[in-house]
Amino acid sequence: MEAMGMKFDWWNATSYAAYYRTWNVVVHDWLYTYVYKDFCEVFRPKTHFVPTMLVFLVSAVVHEFILAFTFRFFYPMLFLAFGGFGASLVFLPRDVAGSGNIIMWLLLCIGNGILTSAYSMEWYARINCQQTLDPFWDFFVPRSWNCRPLLSVNE
User: Fold this and answer.
1) CA gap 112, 124 in Å, rounded
2) Could you list the residue ranges that cross the membrane (predicted)?
3) Tens digits of per-residue pLDDT, 91-129?
4) What single string gives the DSSP state of each residue in 142-155?
5) From CA 38, how far away is CA 143, in angstroms rounded?
6) Which pTM value belongs to this model?
């Protein structure tokens, strides 16, 4: 595991910044080297906020692409949770983030529960609800938001 850079104990992270750095070290190192550092050179010496947000944007887009390819529908919940809410947690002040590991685990569990529920709801809506749009737009527009149940044989 150490050869792959998986030696860090992400489960003991006391902030989301530490969690994101240690969760997947290989991906973190790639994003740091090829996205963050390059954008730091572009925006230097102004701020590190923009490069950090661009790293989250790139990562969120790639994760969303993988899920859309896997599930065969686009449902941007992970993009919003990871790219929006998750990215904002990195900028918490140390005294708020100092509550540490308990808050990190609580938010991690709640977030994963919400994401699992949302993607499951959309998956079953795709099975049980009528397609109301042409196939191109149906890929992007969630059926769970305006479900018209399929007619059963008995009706």
Assistant:
1) 18
2) 49-67, 73-92, 104-125
3) 776 555 556 677 778 888 898 999 999 999 999 999 999
4) -GGGS--BPPPTT-
5) 39
6) 0.78
Which neighbouring-strand residues pair with 149?
129
pLDDT value of residue 28: 86
Q: Is 5 left (phi over 0), alpha (psi -120 to 50) or beta?
A: left
d(CA 67, CA 75): 8
Using the predicted structure, report yes or no on whether residue 34 has a pLDDT greater than 80: yes
Distance CA 116, CA 114 (A): 6
* pLDDT tens-digit readout, 44-100: 767 788 888 888 889 889 999 999 999 999 999 988 888 777 777 777 765 555 566
Q: Are 37 and 50 in contact (CB under 8 A)?
A: no
Burial 112-132 (b: 16+ CB within 10 A, else e): eeebeebbebbbebbeebeee
**Residue 45, preceding peptide bond in cis (omega within 30° of 0):** yes
- The amino acid that residue 36 corresponds to is Y
In the prediction, which pLDDT does 119 show?
Answer: 96
| Rounded-to-10 torsion of CA 104, 109, 113, 115 | 40
* Catalytic annotation, residues: 63
